[in-house]
Specification:
The chain has 193 residues and is α/β, with parallel strands linked by helices. The chain has 5 helices and 13 strands. It is globular.
Length: 193
């Protein structure tokens, strides 16, 4: 079920034009900057956008301008763990053979999960109950489990990524507190009894 949904929602997201991705991403970033979550944050967990994901460069730039500590994930396929490193400029990044921007090991400044006060999370699909369909490796769920449950977890998503049912989950899947699409910030709804 998860595999089929991943494939389906990747295809849906990949049908967005570059102009649609840019337009949605600008709306999402602009709305994010108006929230108390953003205004009150000092250490922001974010991701470097890839392909048709909600673009995050604008968010990084705004965070740097405001003096926030902006983080990016570093995943280790060997031991299945993800860490967060401070990143201070796009000039620090290099492209790997897949075209994904990475921070060289010599420039990594690891930040402990307990210092994070805002989590901005990617995913393939989300539902209105905050459930997230990730990339299948479990990096985010394992990392988010180390962060205080009080820290806001906000999904950044195009509205076409919102699934209209209840996504399948297991006991390790942590729900998002909010979904932020081009149409605005929505708190997760309670699951029907």
């Amino acid at each position: 079920m998860k595999t089929a949904l991943r494939k389906q929602y990747k295809q849906i997201r990949n049908q967005l034009t570059l102009a649609q991705v840019q337009n949605n991403s600008e709306k999402i970033a602009t709305q994010l900057f108006e929230t108390a979550f953003w205004k009150n944050s000092t250490v922001v967990m974010l991701y470097l956008s890839f392909q048709s994901e909600v673009m995050t460069d604008m968010i990084y730039q705004q965070g740097w301008q405001e003096g926030k500590t902006m983080l990016m994930p570093i995943c280790s396929a060997q031991d299945g763990i993800m860490i967060m490193s401070k990143v201070t400029s796009f000039a620090q990044l290099e492209q790997n053979r897949y075209g994904i921007r990475e921070l060289p090991e010599t420039l990594q400044q690891i930040v402990p999960p307990e210092s994070i006060d805002l989590c901005l999370i990617p995913g393939i699909a989300f539902d209105i109950y905050g459930n997230r369909l990730g990339f299948g490796a479990g990096y985010y769920d394992r990392y988010l489990a180390k962060i205080s449950p009080q820290v806001p977890r906000i999904a950044l998503a195009h509205s076409c990524q919102i699934y209209d049912g209840i996504l399948p989950t297991d006991q390790y899947d942590l729900p998002m507190h909010y979904m932020l699409t081009e149409y605005g910030l929505e708190p997760k709804k309670q699951l029907p009894k």
